[in-house]
Write a structure and sequence with these properties.
This protein is mostly helical. It has seven helices and no strands. It is globular and about 55 Å long.
């Protein structure tokens, strides 16, 4: 069992003891997403289950989905549902590493570009791959892409 998966399990047990209904619901969703990924991996022939990096990807995806849902609910004037999505985000983010700030992202991009020796936009995939390998869960790659592109084109 991975460290992150164990942390989610411990938090789930604590939420049951505390009778924290909303928190428990979110933790169960996290657990279900991890188990779904386990099942997918078993179908591919991997019996060891998800690793921490894959759990971070799952959690990042969950945060992104809830952020999009919250915006949609706000546009539809359903502030109660938007608030619920935001509270789920807070629970999920407890298990994610600290997000890098703008300066740290820029430094990470510059470091990856220099390590790879990237000098044109054709190297963008290599740079993004290196960033994803090193910073999964710490940066939003949808916003990092344009930064990489600007560095390689500029």
């Amino acid at each position: 069992m991975t460290d992150l998966r164990a942390r989610v399990g411990d938090a789930l047990k604590q939420a049951m003891k505390d009778k924290a209904v909303d928190r428990l619901s979110t933790l169960r969703l996290i657990n279900a997403a991890i188990k779904d990924k386990d099942i997918d991996l078993r179908a591919e022939g991997r019996d060891e289950g998800v690793e921490d990096g894959e759990v971070l990807q799952i959690l990042g995806k969950m945060v992104k989905q809830r952020g999009e849902s919250a915006r949609a609910y706000e546009e539809a004037s359903r502030l109660d549902l938007a608030e619920r999505e935001r509270s789920e985000i807070l629970v999920i983010e407890e298990f994610l590493p600290r997000q890098l700030n703008e300066a740290e992202v820029t430094k990470a991009v510059d470091t990856a570009i220099s390590e790879i020796g990237a000098d044109s936009i054709r190297d963008m995939g290599k740079v993004m791959g290196a960033l994803k390998a090193r910073y999964t869960g710490q940066m939003d790659f949808a916003t990092v892409g344009p930064v990489v592109k600007a560095r390689l084109c500029g």
